[in-house]
Specification:
membrane, 2 domains, WSC domain-containing protein, 3 helices, about 20% strand, about 180 residues
Length: about 180
């Protein structure tokens, strides 16, 4: 046999082996992907007066502002829902949002351009606890601060707003007299 024939026979055998393995491999991968579904992430109910609002889209493609804006961001390789809520509470921000496993966005505003999505869209686990949902790629798990004394419909909340309005009115009257 000539060198060319041996090389051709070896190349044919090699390609046949590769083709045979390639045909078997996708079947195994498909079987694994069907039997191993992506785990469901737990949504933290909130704490420290924060309640979970839902998963929202980021607004960078619409405007230069973030979904949660007017505040700051903290990044941590140990990020958890609790760590983010503590950081935002410590800075007195009404909104806390977790994005892309390790980002915690705090701010006084949630953009009107940000839309609520299905919770499954926030599909990345937190860097510090991968069983908790920490947003996703351009997806934010959003929490809002509700004062422990501010219960919806409570007369205490109304009286606080009324007292503030009266103080403003007295101030205006005093200035104009």
């Amino acid at each position: 046999m000539s060198r060319l024939s041996i090389a051709t026979a070896t190349a044919t055998l090699t390609w046949t082996t590769i083709l045979f393995i390639a045909l078997l491999h996708p079947v195994t991968v498909v079987a694994q992907s069907i039997s191993d579904p992506k785990p469901t992430l737990a949504v933290g109910p909130g704490s420290l007066g924060y309640v979970y609002l839902g998963c929202y889209n980021e607004t960078l493609d619409i405007t230069n502002d973030r979904a949660i804006y007017g505040g700051n961001v903290t990044k941590s390789t140990d990020m958890t829902v609790e760590e983010c809520l503590e950081a935002c509470k410590g800075r007195n921000y009404d909104y806390a949002g977790l994005e892309y496993t390790s980002e915690c966005w705090c701010g006084p505003y949630l953009s009107d351009l940000s839309q609520k999505l299905e919770d499954t869209q926030c599909d990345l686990g937190c860097a510090g606890n991968n069983s908790e949902a920490c947003g996703g790629a351009l997806r934010v798990s959003v929490y809002k601060l509700e004062s422990s004394s501010a219960v919806r419909g409570s007369s205490g909340l109304v009286s606080v707003h009324l007292a503030a309005a009266l103080a403003l009115t007295v101030c205006v009257v005093t200035i104009t007299l």
